[in-house]
Amino acid sequence: MPPNDGRWTRLFDHFKREWQIYAMLLPTIIWFLVFLYKPMYGLQIAFKDYSIFRGVANSPWIGLEHFQTLFSNDQFLRAIGNTIKISALNLIFGFPAPIILALMFNEVLHASYKRTAQTIVYLPHFISSVIIAGIVITAFSPTAGIVNTIIGWFGLDPVYFLTQPQWFRPIFVGTGIWQEAGFGSIVFLAAIAGVNPSLYESAVVDGANRWQMMWKITIPSILPTILIMLIIRIGNVMEVSFELVILLYQPATYETADVVNTWIYRQGLQSGQYDLAAAGGLFNAFVAFVLVMTANTLSRRYSRTSLW
Fold this sequence. Notes:
The chain crosses the membrane at residues 21-37, 86-105, 126-156, 176-196, 217-235, 276-298. The chain is mainly alpha-helical.
């Protein structure tokens, strides 16, 4: 009898016993295969002189020519720079925001006030990006916006913020924090809820105040969760919110607002250069893969916390 027969028997028995669980998992597997793995077949057009009339299979191979075009294109290089700068601002200001919010909620003792405040800060996450962009455009309008109205109270001239390149990044990052910080705090609140209460009881006996307990107990206890979320966030560095950018930017702000995803959108869907856009998307995915692998390796080496 082959030595692997026992293993296959156990595997068959396991599937027979737990088939309901795998049946529930099947729709998700099909979704991944159809919408994430099957489209990978089209990545080869990044290395071809693609023509919609010839199709993917019959278009001639041209090697790395599209990648050479990418890195000699000033607009693409500018888009990479903008993506990195916006992502850096999001990491510096956006990543700590839900952590701070969760720590603040944890210190609120009045249950009704806490629930009301949480509901208010969670709501923006469930609002469409189109509506969020409309609110931002209205708020910063030079004629009827509340921001320019306040500026007018001080006798200053109105400013059309969304047409000035230097204002795009602060507005974009601030909007992202407002929209996602509340919902993002749920993960950290869940981690805080898992902290052993006996640690706080011991700290109270030792005379620690709330501030000391937060720094010495709460933050160290949720540090693994923070590191996992940071690794995931670093993996999304090149994925700046495409919807919000494309709704808020305009040619006047391309200098600071044009990111890799919007450049790919213009090249692929507006200009019809699908092969060049595919090369840009493949480069984007490769950079994200390298970043998440590097962040995971460093985290595992220095903190023993990692995604895998």
